[in-house]
From TrEMBL, chain A:
Keyword annotations from UniProtKB, A to Z: Antibiotic resistance, ATP-binding, Cell membrane, Membrane, Nucleotide-binding, Translocase, Transport
Domain ABC transporter residues, every copy: 8-238
Name of the molecule in the record: ATP-binding cassette domain-containing protein
PROSITE patterns named in the record: ABC_TRANSPORTER_1, ABC_TRANSPORTER_2
TrEMBL record, chain B:
TM regions (residue ranges): 32-55, 67-89, 123-141, 147-171, 178-196, 235-258
InterPro entries: ABC2_TM (IPR013525), ABC2_TM_bact-type (IPR047817), ABC_2_transport (IPR000412), Nod_factor_ABC_transporter (IPR051784)
Key words, A-Z: Antibiotic resistance, Cell membrane, Membrane, Transmembrane, Transmembrane helix, Transport
Primary site of residence: membrane
PANTHER family: NODULATION PROTEIN J (PTHR43229:SF2)
Protein known as: Transport permease protein
Membrane topology qualifier: Multi-pass membrane protein
Ranges of residues in domain ABC transmembrane type-2: 32-266
Family classification: Belongs to the ABC-2 integral membrane protein family.
Localization terms from the record: Cell membrane; Membrane
Amino acid sequence: MPVNGPTIDAEGLRKRYGDMRALDGLDLTVPAGGVCGLLGPNGAGKTTAVRVLTTLLRPDAGRATVAGADVLRHPDRVRARIGLVGQHAAVDEVLSGRQNLVLFARLHHLPVSRARARAADLLDRFDLVDAADRPVGTYSGGMRRRLDLAAGLILDPPVLVLDEPTTGLDPRARAQVWDAVRGLAAAGTTVLLTTQYLEEADQLADTLRVVDRGRVIAAGTPDQLKTALGGDRVDVVLSRPDDLDRAVRLVGVAVGAAPDVDPAALRLSVPVPQRVTALAAVLRALDDAGLAPADVAVRRPTLDEVYLRLTARDAPDTDRTVTA
Amino acid sequence: MTTLPARRLRFAVSDSLVLTGRALAHAVRQPVPVLVGLLFPVLLVLMFGYLFGGAMTVPGGGDYREFLLPGMFAMTVAFGIEATYTAVASDTARGVTDRFRTLPMAPSAVVTGRAAADLLHSAAGLAVMLACGLAVGWQWRAGPARALAAVGLLLLLRFALIWVGIHLALVLRRPESVVALQILVWPVGFTSNAFVAPETMPGWLAAVAEWNPLSATVAACRELFGNPGWGGDSFAAQHAVALAVVWPVLLIAVFLPLSVRRWRHLGR
């Protein structure tokens, strides 16, 4: 199998549903190894992109190769080299976890004995041994997801595609899935992961692609994105609600930019070009006016802020309330 | 290494056997719905045969239960469409169908495996009904060869209904909608010759019942089993066996390509 060049390479993918452009010239290059996160709001085209890359959907235009095989010309080769974990736990609810894995292993054309051995391996690896012979219908959400992951890894595929793998999971189950994904990436699997949780992207992804309206609008590591967009911010938390309006005015004048306001938390947040100068100016302005803030801090923007800025539709910046 | 077409064929067969095995494993895991499905037609035989049977007349004379049983065989086969629908719609709604489509398996196996499992299921259902028939005094009276031909026609109808079921499931994609199918089976069954002879119905309804595809199979079974109530003046009644072949073949000719098209449409 050719391993030179990117593991996933898509160019100009287009897909229309009626008037809706689900993919509008999407380009995507994912190098081998590591976790690449596809981040974007609902309806941005993440799932459509995943369905094209996993041979489930034919694009109207464009081309894509996954693990060296063309998704349109050699879908069978792509299928032999990928694992997909979709949005729903796509497992048989009536059968046991073990029966599910043996079934999928048989459909990967493993002989019966090897299919059984592989199922046992995977059950062990995903901590499902105790529940192995119970019907999947009795599993918790987290167990189902882990089984689903295991079913995507029958042949240790070089590429694993995860479409919103932790949607609807409780925090504990989410952490378990994250651990599993980290382990796979560490072992050399290239993981493409879509998510709408910024925390998940920040925690798991080595590189990010922000998708909006069917195209990739930003790419880079989480740190690069944070640096490229917005730079540092000064946060001020007030102690009295009555001070809020004055503080917004004072801080705005001091740094020359309108702060974002979170009235419930009595917090202002403002992007600043020079962290030290700006911090001094803010403190001086508040002090001169006799306002005693509860907390003042300089920080990097969060991924949430970067993301909201990138995917902002028509709301002007100043109207947006940022909660960090 | 064997040649590519030979490998393909081998995988197509082995993959569909794996999926047939999956359906059988379902029956072992959840025996109660399977048993209910097998015994429900028996309940109908008892209800119609003994409860309503006294009020029924068979044109040309004859025992009502002898008349009823071939109708019940066909109804058993018709109920099978619900099993096909539920299985395909659940897999599609839950993403299992999509998982199959991302596996390096033979795509045709998804339907051939389903078809084999459904035919086995209906064969079991028919075996139960034949035993039930014998227990209530029904018999095949025209020899084993013709009896086997009748069973063959019943399974042919079942095979045709598999494609109707798959098509409906891929169009509707909601497992809950099987309720509509469970209800609709009844008017189709009642406007046929399965329970009541069309001669006793108003003229327009009798015409509908005569030409109902289910009626063709029922009339052919009565003829081949040598049970009362077959024959008559109409074209449909005179050519029951031929129609019991033509109707299912027609259904297959329409719904098999439609199902394949719908299957491909999942990728659009």
